[in-house]
Specification:
The structure holds two protein chains of two kinds.
Chain A: E1 3-5, E2 12-14, E3 19-23, E4 26-30, H1 33-44, H2 49-53, H3 74-77, E5 81-82, E6 94-101, H4 106-118, E7 122-127, E8 133-138, H5 145-154, E9 158-161, H6 166-205, H7 209-230, H8 232-243, H9 249-270, H10 276-297, H11 303-308, E10 314-318, E11 323-327, E12 336-339, E13 348-353, E14 356-359, H12 361-364, E15 370-372, E16 377-378, E17 383-384, E18 389-395, H13 401-415, H14 422-447, H15 452-466, H16 471-489, E19 491-493, H17 497-504, E20 507-511, H18 512-516, E21 517-528, H19 535-546, H20 552-560, E22 570-575, E23 579-584, E24 587-592, H21 594-599, E25 622-628, E26 631-642, H22 646-655, E27 659-663, H23 668-677, E28 683-684, H24 689-701, E29 706-710, H25 716-721, E30 724-728, H26 733-738, E31 741-743, H27 750-778, H28 780-784, H29 790-809, H30 811-814
Parallel strand pairs in A: 20-27, 20-29, 27-28, 29-30, 30-31
Antiparallel strand pairs in A: 1-2, 3-4, 5-6, 6-8, 6-9, 7-8, 10-11, 10-12, 12-18, 13-16, 13-18, 14-15, 14-17, 19-31, 21-26, 22-23, 23-24, 24-25, 25-26
Helix pairs in contact in A: 6-7, 6-10, 7-9, 7-10, 8-9, 9-10, 9-15, 10-16, 14-15, 16-27, 16-29, 17-27, 19-20, 27-29
Chain B: H1 2-27, H2 37-40
Classes of the chains: A alpha+beta, B mainly alpha.
């Protein structure tokens, strides 16, 4: 027997379970009927190209839930609305936005769209590549929502209700508003340039007075909407800031554009030169910068909704007479709730009867399945793995562990102060000094006995020339170049503050499970207890048995023997919570934990202490024994594998003068062991999600800036709280949404690279800001002397913009 | 002289036309998913 690869989901699985099928003369293998069904369906609908196109880097999950259970339509029905474009189509159409889970590449998007469009009655279907959100419009007289969603499930994806958070909607509206303002400003400014050029030419060659006035009138008409419509947000913010005498970028932009506008208007009647182009360009370029900035923020703010979706909608409550399905809100503390294998545990409680194991990795960071026997605590949101259990509800509503995590994430998001970006801080001093220079100029002119009119105009011209429009581009352009570049290296960066935050970092905190470690168990060592049998053979026997088990410890052993031959097993039996039994050749083998060995009457070396007496067993490791004919033959040490690069990365971060530590929800022994293995002394164990967050806050209150790296739901509050949060790409969606940076490749080496690159980019931003100001400041003496000309203003603007663009492009080669 | 007036008029009309086109594009969601177009060209769709 060997391991095969499923042609649909690319999962490797033991050949015993294979389903084969001839498709167009080629033999195809599948791991389960679900995959076969999907493969056929995709063939039948003429979408076979999907298999050629897809670019999956790892296998998918077999569609375990397929066909099992009805899709609960209730969360969706509230989201259905009448289509706004109904006027164009006959009849009234319905529309819904859903989120499609399981999309991993462009072909998945293509496949889903194809399938939805082929559904009778569906008029429109579009899946967003970036957000995996689908908008579907259908004719309610031909088909129903249930049928449509069932189509998505039929090809192995999971539709989820899509609820847009308030913040996300606001962000989207802001981006669209900025785009319209920028676009309007850009079109008008480009028109304006034509007329300004004519006026420049007129200045050198001479121009008829009548023509000059005409061109100026047109320029005026084009500038008014730019300054007073497109530039309105700047003016509004300036007026707001004026009350508190605070100056930021907006005030500088407003002062610059308004003074240029007023100056030009006055010059028009006096017959002088106009600066309408300066006024319009300032606004346009800064709007461009703002727009780039908002698009860099990307999709965010879905965390809380996703956390809430972790809980099932209802619970099976045991009453005196039988069982009853109740919505979660109607379950009281003390009620008895039954959970079947594979189901999510709905609430926190204490097990009353039944035995099982539950997967709490996402909530607590514990990497191994946690045994559940009567008296154990269960956590709402974790998954019950093997046996049916009944538990007494202890906490409901706001008191549950998950609800506390949600609150901690909300707190973190709400309390995070908005960082004042470098450009704003530089301007804070620049604006007052600029106003001072302008005032001094006016005073000097008056003292020299000039007319008040001339004095005032000289003062205003100082303001006109000093406003650096490329300042608005200095930060966004550098950030845009940086994020585009890093995304090709496997780092997704969200938002511009990331670079300034990354530069400040003093302390790096790693989560353990899934971050420093791989997050799933791997076989660490085989200890032969019977030296008559070779290690190779022991592994082969164990792998043959374990390849039939679904337990993740079993898969660690099966995975280690991948590629080697596997022997046929008869009389196979899995004993949940203990191990497996089976017959290979003449040997009746049992493989499992100490409890199984005790049951089978096998005495182990080291007696009751079992595995811990063995030399290569470290705290946190799991030991499984294999025995036949009443004698122990081997011990298998399984541990959560530490990432190969972890140690080097820790050392590198230390070299960068950063403090590094580990914080984990796992037990103390396991945590200390991993910490020591990667060369760390500082480790905190048994930290709840809220503890992690508090630990970070405590550090930050002592003026430390913390970089948190994590992957689980239990890290979400900490990732939100930290100065900078980095999520592992294979981590949970919730962790990714809470963090500002996501490592698409789960490679820890990207962290020191990213920190170094951020420092360099920060340097570039500083240069950009300096030079953006420099060219304009250099022209101030001309304004003071009353020699300012529109061409000088345009030249300063062009020179500084070119510098900022060129300098930002340098980032591509530097990092 | 009238040619200049005419040309000015034409540039303004063209500019405003382009502006309206842009407004339409934004409002109809052309800028909502900038990821998409680079894949659409790879889909060999014969029906639409």
């Amino acid at each position: 027997m060997a391991l095969l690869t499923c042609d649909h989901c690319l999962l490797t699985f033991p050949a015993r379970e294979a389903l084969s099928e001839e498709v167009q003369g080629v033999k195809k293998t599948f791991c389960c009927p679900g995959c076969r069904g999907i493969y056929w369906l995709i063939q039948e609908e003429g979408c076979a190209d999907f298999y050629k196109k897809r670019t999956w880097e790892e296998n998918g999950t077999p569609p375990a839930g397929l066909g099992k259970g009805e899709l609960d339509l209730r969360p969706f029905t509230g989201q259905v609305r009448d289509s706004s474009s109904a006027a164009k189509a006959p009849g009234r159409l319905r529309e819904i936005d859903i989120y499609i889970d399981g999309i991993r590449c462009a072909s998945c998007v293509w496949l889903n769209e194809k399938f939805l469009k082929k559904t009778a009655g569906v008029v429109y279907a579009a899946v967003n590549y970036a957000t995996h959100r689908a908008r579907i419009r259908w004719d309610p007289e031909v088909t129903g929502l249930g049928t449509i969603l069932q189509r998505v499930r039929a090809i192995g994806y999971t539709p989820r209700p899509y609820v847009e958070s308030e913040r996300f909607r606001a962000q989207k509206a802001e981006a669209r508003d900025l785009l319209i303002r920028f676009g309007t400003a850009a079109f008008l400014s480009s028109q304006l340039m034509v007329f300004s050029m004519a006026l420049y030419a007129g200045y050198f060659q001479g121009i008829e007075g009548e023509m000059k006035i005409l061109l100026e009138m047109i320029a005026l008409a084009l500038t008014v909407p730019v300054v007073f419509y497109a530039g309105m947000p700047f003016i509004r913010n300036t007026l707001r800031g004026l009350r508190q005498l605070s100056f930021n970028m907006d005030s500088l932009i407003a002062i610059g554009s308004l003074s240029a506008f007023a100056f030009s208007l006055w010059q028009m009647f006096r017959g002088g030169e106009v600066y309408f182009d300066t006024a319009a360009m300032i606004v346009t370029l800064v709007l461009l910068g703002r727009y780039l900035e908002t698009t860099a923020k990307g999709k965010a703010y879905g965390t809380i909704e996703m956390l809430a979706e972790m809980l099932p909608q209802e619970a099976t409550v045991l009453t005196g007479t039988g069982q009853e399905h109740r919505p979660l809100a109607a379950v009281q503390p003390g009620d008895l709730v039954q959970v079947k294998p594979g189901e999510r545990i709905p609430l926190d409680g204490v097990v009353v009867s039944g035995e099982s194991e539950s997967d709490e990795a996402l909530l607590t960071g514990e990497s191994r399945p946690v045994p559940k026997i009567p008296g154990s605590l269960v956590i709402g949101g974790s998954t019950n793995l093997y046996g049916s259990i009944v538990f007494a509800v202890k906490h409901t509503g706001e008191e549950t562990t998950l609800a506390r995590i949600i609150r901690a994430v909300e707190d973190g998001q709400a309390q995070k102060p908005r960082l004042q970006i470098l450009a704003d801080r530089s301007v804070g001093l620049f604006v007052p000094s600029l106003l001072l220079v302008a005032a001094l100029t006016v005073a000097a002119y008056l003292l020299a006995g000039k007319a008040p009119e001339t004095a005032l105009m000289a003062g205003i011209s100082v303001l006109v020339i000093a406003c650096p429009c490329s300042l608005g581009l200095a930060t966004p352009l550098a950030i845009l170049t940086f994020t585009t570049h890093t995304s090709s290296r496997g780092i997704l960066v969200r938002g511009g503050e990331v670079i300034e935050n990354a530069k400040k970092i003093t302390h790096v905190i790693f989560d353990k499970t899934g971050t420093i470690t791989i997050g799933k168990p791997v076989l660490k060592d085989i200890i032969a207890l019977d030296h008559a049998v070779g290690k190779e053979e022991l592994l082969c026997l164990a792998a043959s048995l374990e390849s039939l088990s679904e337990h993740n410890l079993a898969q660690a052993i099966a995975g280690a023997a991948k590629g080697r031959g596997i022997q046929g097993v008869s009389e196979f039996k899995a004993l949940p919570g203990k191990g497996v039994l089976g017959k290979i050749g003449e040997r009746k083998i049992c493989l499992g934990n100490m409890r199984l060995m005790a049951e089978q009457g096998i005495s182990l070396p080291g007696g009751n202490k079992g595995g811990t007496a063995l030399s290569s067993v470290a705290p946190g490791d799991t030991v499984m024994f294999m025995a036949w004919d009443g004698l122990p033959r081997a011990a298998f040490v399984v541990a959560d594998g530490i990432r190969d690069e972890a140690r080097a990365v820790v050392a590198e971060l230390r070299e960068m003068k950063l403090r590094v530590s580990i914080i984990s929800g796992d037990n103390n022994q396991a945590t200390q062991y991993v910490a020591a293995a990667v060369g760390l002394g500082e480790a905190r164990a048994e930290a709840s999600p809220v503890d992690k967050k508090e630990a970070i806050r405590a550090l930050q209150e002592r003026n430390q800036h913390v970089l948190m790296i994590g992957d689980g739901i239990n890290d979400a509050p900490a990732l939100t709280e930290a100065t900078l949060g980095i999520a592992m790409g294979r981590g949970t969606d919730i962790a990714r949404e809470s963090a500002a940076v996501v490592l698409i490749r789960d490679d820890l080496r990207l962290i020191p690279y990213f920190l170094r690159a951020s420092r360099k980019v920060y340097g570039i931003i500083r240069q950009n800001i300096f030079w953006a100001l420099f060219y304009n400041v250099a022209a101030i003496p001309l304004a003071v002397a009353g020699l300012l000309h529109p061409i000088v203003a345009a030249g300063a603007m062009a020179a500084s913009s070119l510098f900022v663009v060129g300098n930002s492009l340098r980032i591509r080669r530097m990092v | 002289m009238w040619t200049i007036y005419l040309l000015i008029f034409i540039t303004l009309v063209l500019g405003v036309g382009a502006w309206f086109l842009f407004l339409w594009a934004v409002k109809s969601g052309q800028y909502d998913d900038p990821e998409r177009p680079k894949y659409t060209m790879l889909d060999e769709d014969d029906e639409d």
